[in-house]
Amino acid sequence: MSEARLLGPSDPGIGAAQGRQALALARLLPAVCVSAREVASSVMHGIHGRRRAGSGENFWQFRPFSQGESTSRIDWRRSARDDRTYIREREWEAAQTLWLWMDRSPSMRFVSGLARQSKLERCLVVGLAMADLLVRGGERVGLVGRTRPIASRAVVDRLAEALVGDPSELAELPRPAPLPARARGLLVGDWLSDPAEIARTLQALSAEGARGHVVAIADPIEESFPFAGHVEFADVDTSARLRLGEARALREAYLERLAAHREAIVAVCRRLGWSFTIHRTDRPATEAVMRLSVLVADAGSASATRVH
Amino acid sequence: MLGLPLAFTVPAVLSALVLLPALYYLLRVTPPRPRQIPFPPLKLILDLKPREEKPARTPPWLLLLRLAVASVIILAMAGPVWNPPPATLAGKGPLLLVIDDGFAAAPDWTTRIAAATERLAEAGRRGTTAAVVPVSDGVRQILPTTAARALDRLRSLKPVPYLPDRTAALPAIAAAVAAYPDAGLVWIADGLDNGRGRAFAEGLEALKTATPPTVLVGATTPVALAGADNKPDALAVRLIRADAHAAAKGALKAYDLKGLPIGGAAFDFGTATATEARFALPVELRNSIASVAVDGDASAGAVTLLDGRWKRRRVEIVSGETADVSQPLLSPGFFLQKALAPYADVHEVRSGTPDPIVAGLDEKPSVLILADVGQITGPAHERLVRFLDEGGVLLRFAGSRLAGGTGDDLEPVTLRRGGRTFGGALSWDKPKPLAPFDRASPFYGLSVPTDVTITRQVLAEPDAGLAGRTWAQLDDGTPLVTAEKRGKGKIVLFHVTADTTWSNLPLSGLFVEMLRRVVALGGETAAATSAEAGGKAEADATALAPNRILDGFGTLGSPPVTAKPIPPGFSGTGSSDHPPGFYGPADALVAVNALAPDATLIPADFAGLRIDRQMLKAAQPIDLRAALLLLAFAGFLIDTLATLWLGGGLVAGRGRRAATAALLAFGLLTLAAAPHRAWAAGDPPVSKRDMDSAVTTRLAYVGSGDPTVDETSLLGLKTLSRALANRTSLDPGEPVEVDPGRDELAFYPLIYWPVVATAPQPPPEAVARLAAFMKNGGTIIFDTRDALSSRSGGPPTAEGLWLQTLLAGVDVPELEPVPRDHVITKTFYLIDGFVGRYANGQTWVQALPPAPPEQVNRPARSGDSVSPIVITSNDLAAGWATDPAGDPLYPLVPGGNRQRELSIRGGINLVMYTLTGNYKADQVHVRDLLERLAH
């Protein structure tokens, strides 16, 4: 029987450690770029070369001046070399916005003896690492309901600052306000709330056409239910308690319930075009981040559900 | 209990053990609190009802642990005692505790008292009355009192120095048993039959008490001394024991009258019950032995006292016969020598000696025997009178010369000239036998053999005092042995010869005994010689009062009030009236011993008696309660930890802390319970300060006792040390204060000594160490700090006088003001002098030898060694001293930063000089020095 506990107030708080960890993790992975396919109409500038002329920083090509164009776009230095007049075109560069939400409710403070980290730590590490990766890839990342999209190199610090003192810290689900159209969402949590409520929230978030990725962080104990004998379970969010004389007898029923719960969430995600990923805290965080990198960069098969 | 030496003081508590099954049931149905597990997905299954809910039970091992703890607590409450006192309180009535208090009980008296105390305590717990009956009390009536008062009586008991007759106490015990028929009898016996042990036991059995009397017998019986014999070569002491249970080997020690040990002797019984130990000592030492005791055995029986009777007398025999003894085996001297040899050192003056009596007296005998010496005149007479006045015994034997002589005053009685002959041709009388000895005679008690006859003797003139002077007489009343006191001594006259010509007395054993008693008189003083006084009344008046009496433990002390004087010639052993010890005046002590010379110790035999015989337990009862409670506490702690563990509490920090605290408490308890061990911490041979000083070179100063001066010295040396570390390759440690009288100075190359005139002069040993320090190559800077007040040519200042006094005991070399070419001015900086707070003072160092002519132009000059002493008056330390921030402490005279820098430079030069010596005076530096001096 493994140990399980909640992080107490005396445990080292969520702070710079997670930020450093996230940065270290992100440094291992190449910058993530959101697929350009989906951001054609985005007006935001980014550094993704779109392989076509447009507004951007980098030189793309010289093009002969055609009548009616603004003369301010003429590249006089090039034009002076011969008799024709040229216009310097730059490559069109654009950026995608990703809205991040990380669950910090009490149930996330759970850690068992089998896990490497508490769910909360893992959630923050994964979320912040993704933010850093995306920003390094030229995207912008914002916290749902907390910050504007940020493209700063110090995005991890900025996000962490924003997380501190967040009044919605105890909320189990993000605020059901729609994300901007074409923006992407990255929702990291344990998703143990009522499936109907989850469906309502996801629906609200994608009301304007946003899509995204749902990551469920799970402790191995929650997945395997390795209890036996005389055990009293205590709920984390409420004061509910369940005393079992023989805990093993309930294992099958619990696993069934868990599977059904997950199935319900997956169904909602699939309907809305979101992806759903399960990440266990006994696995390295790298796995989740790599999987998410692929998903974010690909963003095609939305409802892929995989367990990591 | 169960064959173990275990008992319970409150056995009723053990009945609580029957509650254990109930406890078992209770504990079983109340399992420990289940593990508390926070579980976030609990919502998913909150509505599920467990299908099979088996009631949780306490784990069996925890159950067993708790039951064990409960049992241990119950056992502890029952008051378990290891090696319990045997429950011997027979009978419901009063406890009659009969205690053998003869000296045989003395060696293990504390054990006996402890056993008796246990019985009394038990009686006290049971609330019965008790009586303590020492057998020496005899017929005293027995009145049971409360156990507490009986205990007081018990504590006041001491063993008596004799073996009382136990049967004397029987009537009183019988009366007590008659009064209290349900009384319980306990007899703490000494294990000896001496003192009528068997008869007493039979008497106790015959009392028909409700329960048979209990006898407590010790495992061992004592060793006793029965008489001593001063043999020619050694003092032989006879040791006896009752049986093989007594110690088989051991040692005797002999003490003189003052209690100082004289010698020792080992004894070994082997398997016998009697043995002998011999003190092979010179006769003078043997004669001063007053008591012999078994080493380590505190008992009056283990002590034998020796008085004058045991002393070996030196006896000189002077024979009146002519030199050519035709038949030496028939001469009086031969008979006397043979008779006296076992008891005395006999020496016969060689015949032919010019003045035999004087020659004999020159040997300083205690008894001088004159065998048939006629008239004594001239110097011999004077010497004899003096000899008698000093307490000597003159023993004369009659003979033809005495009978034919005209007589002298050295005879106890007036003699009729001409002897009396029995059985001769002219006499019709038969040879006369001896009459029994009179009471007043020293020979009283000797048996008179009937075959001793006297055929011829000298006769005493019948006069008034004759009867009183007669020690032995014939059966017709004719005096045979007469004696008279003369001075402190005695004259004894045998009216027969010492050979067999006049009687066959010298052939009998009686002759030996008589001579022995006469010789024993030698050295005794007048007080002991009451034998002259006839009559019983007079004898009583001169009875010998107890002087120093043995107690039961064999220690001589002042006599108890019950001790009565002994009559003269008392030859019995110690009793309640006459306890063993010394009697009589201090210069003529008579010893009474606890055991007769032929005594034996017989082990008590209680076979066939209806008596409950038990061993006297020496093992101390051990109360197991504390140990059991500690065990229960430990079990309780384990239970707490186990419960915490079962409830998952050990995971949380709180539980871990609780567990740590519990373990800590247990460890502390165990530590407290463990016997304290003292570690003898050997003093480190080298103090840390000395070790540091030996490892790191550092400057030192001598504390003056003036805090300001000391602080200035410390800060000045600190600044100097810093400057040295900054500017030179020397990195000195922190400066220290040293006390030349206390600290080892050898570690410091340079010692700064600010002179304070008001300080006391150091003790001579400190000055001696100072001189040694200077001789061994150390340098001391004396700073009189008086440059401002002293005038050249003026009177010396107080500091200067102080320094002169100090250095009066030190070998100070010739000094001179620092010359310009002295190496001390070149060792690091090129300086002219040593300035400190003042710049005008003179600095003195050991005078250099004059420079050889070829070295006159050398810029630096030095002697062979470092100057052991530097005397300055410029208050160097005050010039150096800065506070920790680097700001100078004292204004300088005349002042300026240049002076401060110069003072530091001077200090550096001084330190470098003490460390490098004449290095800079070497020729290789000459060129550089000249170059630098030129600029």
Rg of chain B is 50 Å
Largest Cβ-defined interface: A-B, 40 and 27 residues
Give a count of the beta strands of chain A, DSSP E runs of length 2 or more.
13
Task: Give a count of the beta strands of chain B, DSSP E runs of length 2 or more.
Answer: 38
Q: Over all CA atoms, what is the radius of gyration of chain A?
A: 23 Å
- Which runs of chain B of at least 5 residues are low in confidence (pLDDT < 50)? 525-540, 675-683
Strand content of chain A: 15-25%
Report mean pLDDT of chain B, rounded to a whole number.
81
Instruction: Tally the helices of chain A.
Output: 8
- Structure classification of chain B: alpha/beta
Main sheet properties of chain A: 6 strands, parallel
Q: What general form of chain A does the structure show?
A: elongated
Question: What can be said about the biggest beta sheet of chain B?
Answer: 7 strands, mixed
Globular, elongated, flat, extended or rod-shaped: what is the shape of chain B? flat
